[in-house]
Amino acid sequence: MKASLCVGKYATTPYCIEGIEVLIYSMEELCYCIKENTYLVDVSLMNDGLLEWIDRECGLRDLVRILNPLVHKAGSLSAFVTAIMEYTGFYGPDVIRQVEQILKQGAGLSRIERQKKLTDQLVVQKKYSKALQGYDLLLAKWQHAPGDGGVRMLPAAEVKASILYNRGAVYAALFLYNQAAEDFWEAWQTDRRDEYMLAFLAARRLELPEKEYIAMTANLPESFEMSLALEKKLDELKIDWRGTVEYRLINMPTAQKEEILLQNLKDSYRSSINYRDSRREK
């Protein structure tokens, strides 16, 4: 079992990280929270309150001396976090570089844009349920914004469109084509990009019977060129599909498929026997 030594003292009074709303009691917990929530970390982390807590509760005055110029002389967030993580030594150089890169890429982004990037990572990890929850929360910010008298500033409309598009992509991955089409359509109405219209048409193409789809496109003149491009793309995909092993298996006679399946089972059994025999020899 790997043991990690704490750097500095374990705090009696915790520190609350603004924006993440997590209480931490040690430098290691600070590094862990930063690493796990990198997309949510912003310049609000760079403040005298955190420096005082590191000094008073953790007893790391040397670290405070390193961080103080970064806070008071307009140092970058990435440099500030890197200094903390390198001093603490809780993570190796590769992880620290990864965190630093994410912070550099997120410099100047709004909190909503950073939260979107975090949610996008859930999609990459195929955690679709959590991703949908994340996109729902982000889109709710536009629904509730008018009540604050315009004090809260929201990102440009293309950010909302991008969130809608990504949520639609998650619905499509779950074969929920109607919900996907609704999101793609709203994304296109918000920011009229060709890719949004193409995604909308593709979702409807997969959802509707052919006659209904043709009738829909006939009543949508702006979709004409994109619908032709979609059909061309579908024809290309069909050609590619016919060249796959899966297609040949589906379309071969049943007896031949059973023969191949039986042979695969035999090969798998022989491999398992050889593996067990090799373990006995050792």
Question: What do you see in this structure?
Answer:
The protein is an all-alpha fold and 282 residues long. It has 14 helices and 2 strands, in the order ββαααααααααααααα. The protein has helices spanning 27-36, 48-56, 61-72, 77-88, 93-106, 111-124, 128-144, 157-173, 177-190, 194-207, 210-218, 224-242, 245-251, 254-281; strands spanning 15-17, 22-24. The protein has a two-stranded antiparallel ribbon. β1 (15-17) and β2 (22-24) form a beta hairpin. α7 packs antiparallel against α8 (157-173). The longest helix is centred in the C-terminal third of the chain and has 28 residues, at 254-281. The radius of gyration is 27 Å and the shape is flat. Mean pLDDT is 86; it is low at 146-152.
Can you give keywords for this protein?
mainly alpha, 2 strands
Question: Could you give a quick summary of the protein structure above?
Answer:
This protein is mostly helical and 282 residues long.
**What is the β-strand count?**
2
Global morphology:
flat
Estimate the mean pLDDT confidence: 86
Q: What Rg, in angstroms, do the CA atoms define? A: 27 Å
Give the termini separation: 26 Å
Q: What is the percent of helical residues? A: 55-70%
For the largest beta sheet, what order do the strands appear in spatially? 1-2
Protein structure class? mainly alpha
What proportion strand?
under 5%
Order of helices and strands: EEHHHHHHHHHHHHHH
